[in-house]
Design brief:
The protein is globular. It has 2 domains: about 5-35 and about 155-305, Rossmann fold (3-Layer(aba) Sandwich); about 40-140, Rossmann fold (3-Layer(aba) Sandwich), CATH 3.40.50.1100. Helix 6 (about 155-165) packs across helix 7 (about 180-195). The relative contact order is 0.17. Strand 3 (about 60-65), helix 2 and strand 4 form a beta-alpha-beta unit. By secondary structure, the protein is of the alpha/beta class. The protein is built from 9 helices and 10 strands. The strands form 2 sheets. Strands 1-2-10-7-8-9 form a 6-stranded mixed β-sheet.
Amino acid sequence: MPLLRAIGSTSLIRLNRVVPVGCAAVFVKLEWENPTGSMKDRMASAVIAAAEADGRLRPGGTVVEYTGGSTGASLAMVCAARGYRIRIVTSDAFSREKLDHMRALGAELTLVPSEGGRTTKQLILNMIEKARELSREPNSFWTDQLNNRDSIAGYYPLGEEIWLQTEGRVDAFVHSVGTAASSRGVATVLKRQKPGVRIACVEPAESAVLNGGLPGPHKIEGVGIGYTPPLWEPSLVDEVIAVPTEDAKAMARRLAREEGLFAGTSSGANVIAAIEVARRLGPNATVVTLMCDSGLKYLSTDVYRT
């Protein structure tokens, strides 16, 4: 079987210990079962396939992207499988494991310095500008994840899997927002099947711009870019829940120790928000969220150093 066919069809399991009594059932999709240990494999495969199909990416071409790491590893994996050079703009704000993972898969990294190792709006803008500069070189294709609508379709199968695995009984889907492609893709599918399904998006409390707040530095990697993502579609979203970084880290640790689920900080934020929704919906409902990536990507950070 070709490597890229191993993407998707991830397990859906119910949380047992961290969800309080009286809440809806909370299920999580184990997206670390994808080849690079991240949900981003779904979008990487989709955007490369679309660019090949319409000629934006040709044999011998170079792929360029700005990323906190998971998208970069996913793109590097697809490029290795498909035979393309890849250049990644990233930063010291993201875990060493993510940077090493990208390099191991053949990515050439350009590092943009951060403000004290934190994600800020200015850091994202600086990374984008550097990627734009690299993309001007001949035979380069810039995937430009914040503006690339092909990535939305990459998450349609995720929505379809959730629908099938819950046998249509999903009442709410909860997920954190980076580019907004994944929440939009899943919401599109679920709302087509069940218009009343509740879509709750998650952002860092320190940078709660989708809730009308000001941008600020935070440490929930891969989400909260400090401004409204171009792919954001508010008509598909019923609410936005803000989760503080420290709470997200604490939940990631609880998931590991109480559920045996080893995930990153955005997964912790997802579960906190999912429990909030589950508390409101009550015991007869079903809530689904995502384990976005593996905790193996965060061992050098302070998430698991307590």
